Amino acid sequence: MHGFGGDPEDWAERFEGADRDAWQKPSQVVAKLALKPGMAIADVGAGTGYFMPHLSRTVGKTGRVVAVDIEPSMVRYMLERAERDGHANVTVRLAATEDPLLAKASLDRIIVVDTWHHIPERVAYAKKLVAALVPGGQVHVVDFKPTSDKGPPAKHKLPAETVKGELEAAGLTVEVDDTALPEQYIAIGTKPKG
User: Fold this and answer.
1) If we measure between CA atoms, which residue out of 40, 34, 165 comes closest to residue 103?
2) DSSP bridge partners of 28
3) Is residue 54 domain-resident?
4) Which of 12, 92, 153, 174 is most buried (CB neighbours < 10 A)?
5) Which string of DSSP letters, residue by residue, matches the chain?
6) 41-77 pLDDT, tens per residue?
7) Would residue 85 count as lying in a domain?
8) Global pTM?
């Protein structure tokens, strides 16, 4: 997985510019999660915490948001952001490249936005995400359509069918929504209840 070095303030300007909301559509992404107050969600590859306020507000005071990233400077930035913005229900953690380090059966939802294409051993990584879900929990992978001019170079973009296959190989039932967002698809993997 590729880390982002440098100053997180610079990355925040890039990751959270006014134009991102137009194509990332955070309200639609969060709506697809079908979160309810009191739920627990992890944002894997959270970067500067772009989704933090949306997730924190949606799960409410009784809910929990775990924001993880592999870059120590991003983790520090998110810790400061959570404290500054009063997101008391957010925990920020440093993850390992090959492991999100999430507690087993502790989460209702996991979201991975603009990050899946960076993960080297995706099926093995997905199995660790599945282990962190409660029965019936979901992983939502939001990544760039190969035709999009946003995101990484074309050679790093993954077709939705590839991501679907990787999540299925980890034991999830997967549906793909490629119409909710203009530049991206959402692969939604659900863990069996039994």
Assistant:
1) 40
2) none
3) yes
4) 92
5) -----S-HHHHHHHHT-HHHHHHH-HHHHHHHHT--TT-EEEEET-TTTTTHHHHHHHH-TTSEEEEEES-HHHHHHHHHHHHHTT-TTEEEEEPBTTB--PPTT-EEEEEEES-GGG-SSHHHHHHHHHHHEEEEEEEEEEEE-TT-SSSS-GGG---HHHHHHHHHHTT-EEEEE-SSSSSEEEEEEE----
6) 999 999 999 999 999 999 999 999 999 999 999 999 9
7) yes
8) 0.92
